[in-house]
Each structure stands twice: as C-alpha cells, then as structure tokens.
Amino acid sequence: MKQKPFLKFFNKKKSFLKKFIFISIIFVIYLKENNVDIYFIRVAFYANSIKYGGIERVISLLINYISKDKRFIIYLITKKSKLEGEYSIPNQINRIMLYEEKISLYEIIEKNHFDILVYNFYFESEIKRLNKLKNIKIIYYDHSSFLYWIYQGIYKFNKSIYNLYRKCQYVLSLIPLENDYLFKRWGINSILIDNPSSFDYDSVEPSDLDSKNIIMIGRSYDPIKRFDLGIKAMKIIIKYVPNCEMNIISKPKKKYVSLIKKLKLEKFVRFVGFQKNIEIFLKNSSLHILPSLSESYCMALSETKIFGIPSIIIGLDYLALAKGGTAIIYDDHPDIIAKEAIKILKDDNLRKKLGKEARNSMKERKNVLIAKKWIKLLISVYKGNNESFIKISEDHDKMAKKEVDKILNNQLILLKKRKPRLKHLTLEKLKNFSLN
Q: Per the domain annotation, does 340 fall within a domain?
C-alpha cells in the first residue's frame, strides 16, 4: 500500500528527530567527559556610569572581554542615563538605567534574576541590604585603599567599609598589602585581582622617550590627585630642561589654571581636557608624575607603563604597580619631585632603562590574562565554590612580613607628616585601623 504524502513526511521527520536526539546525547556526553560545563551565568555590573573615571573605564573593559565568553549573559546597571562620549560596550549587552527606569536596584535584581552582581560602591545601607538577599551572589569590587579612608578622616575600624566587608562572602582587592595581610588580619575574605588596562600590551608601540614631555593623568577636581605638586615642580624643571612641556589629561580646574598663570608657566603646562583616547599624548611623553595622596590600582600608571614611560610616584609603594620603571620618593616638596624629574630627563640611558623596566613589568598583566582570571572567579562564585574562589588568589607571590612592615612604616611616617592629628599614631594602631 502506497504511503500518503503526509505520512511519508512524518516518518522522515521522526527519523530526523531520532538522529538529532542521538547526536545531542553524544554531544552532551562528550562535553561532560571533557569537563565542559553547560550553563549560562547572568552577571550584572553596577556602576555610576561608563564615562570619565577609572572605575567606569575598568567596568567597560571587563564587559567587553567577559561578553566574548558565550556562557555569560551580561547586564550593565547604571545610576545615570546614557552620556555622550561613553566608553564603548557591545550592543548585545543588556543596559538598565535606574534614573530612567524609576525603580530601585533591588526591584531590578528581583525582576531579572541575576546570578551575580558586581558591586562598585561604598554605601553602607546598600551593602547591608544586599547581603540579606537570597538567590544572588554579590562580588564587592573594592576600588579604594585603606589609606584613602584615613586621608578622608575615617579613623576607626567599626566606622569603616572594612567592618562591612567582614560579612561579605566575596571581596576583590587591588592592593597586595591589603589582600595578603591587612584584610586577612581583619577577617575579610578577599582575593587579589589586577585591573585591565585601556591598552592591549601587544598592540602598543612604546614611546621612544626622546621628547622631554611630562604627563599627569587624573580627575583634577579630586584633591587626592594633588596636581599642584607637579605644576610647582615644573617651575624648577624648566630651568634645567628648558624644552620640557607638561600635558595634564583632565578637565582644567580653576585653582590649577590660576597657579599656572601665577608661576608664568602658560607656555610649558597645559590641560588638554578629558580624553577617551590618550595614545597621542602617551606616545609623545618621556616621564609620568603621579603625586596622588593615595591610589588603589591606578589606571594612569598601567597606561604609562604599557607605553614604556618611567614614573615618579610619591610614597605609593604599596601599589601592585609600584615596582618596575618607577622612582619612589617620600617627600611632598616640589623641589624633590623636580630634582628626580631633572635627573631622569637629562640622562638618556637612565630614562630608557626605566622605560624598559616599566613596560616589562606589564607583561604578566595583559588584558587577556586578567579576563581569564575574571571568568574563572565568576564561575567559582556561581558554583558557590569558596575554596576555588580563594585559590584564584594564589597565583602571585605573597608579601613577606618584612616587606609589609617596611611599607607600613613608610606610610606611617607620611601620615604623621600629612595629618598632624595622627602624630602619636603607632604601627600597631595602623595595622588594626584603630587610629584614635
């Protein structure tokens, strides 16, 4: 008996379905046997925006790298609406803007069922409430440093962000001294991470260091950056290096513009405004001055190092990027900064040596390696594997106690000079974040 056309089609379809199911089972078995996990992880990054600051740049970079892994569904939650000139992120990223949605962060979390939220703020009440949420894991990304809070006038542990971190399961630190020693002392469960850089190491052609140009990078409105020290140092530098110029990558601030005029440095120092792409300035610079009171990772330092530019940093010996191509001085006086800058700018061999050391120090901090570490930690957090999370931090040499004490002693001396109120501060009190 001849089959009707629709029955013949059904039999063919049935045969196809059997083959499809069989192949699918074989494929799943293959993935399992080769330890390939099958899941999708919904990760939300929560930030103020993705424009201007170092945190915003870091978040945009991480989203770009992690979104390449198809196991992740990425969301970006921002307080602000889209801004002109934002750092770019892939079009497929789910963007949620609280200002426009007119609903709270917690309603967004409940509505979208995120697996992980990467939190980038320091709001006490918000952290307490987030810690009470179920069915979501929170990663607290600490972009600050304990010294920042001290310089801001926070002198007691129980009033600090670190008291809250003790109750947080996942904390990311950018500073070896904090992660390896202080956080462990304070009972904080953290791992050390490097921030990605604005530039891929292998695609950058380093500066030839032939110019006598100096660069400073940062937010001029932040008093922590202390651009006035670099500007005042220039008054001395140009006496010995008359063809020297300084570019400040930032929006101009009135008090700095006035200082430049007062010192008659208009021909030598200029603000070039906020720049999304600063390669043109990095390629044409031979020295970076970093006069900040405190930093955590310091995007500017990673950028200048990748371009092989030596740096003068003021007391920031606790940074992950402190070593390699840097001259660390422990004096806030512009004369001392100028003296070090003149030495580097006038000595071609020294400048090239420091530049080579600076670039080489970034070899192990390529963005692709940092992205792999992030993917590893996100998967470990998703699976709730705390042991795996902690092991991620074991890929660096832990700080020896001798080095810890040396750095803390250096910072103690600087704190006493800069904060007269802390003139009786002891090393033990500093270690305990109990400064009163």
A: yes
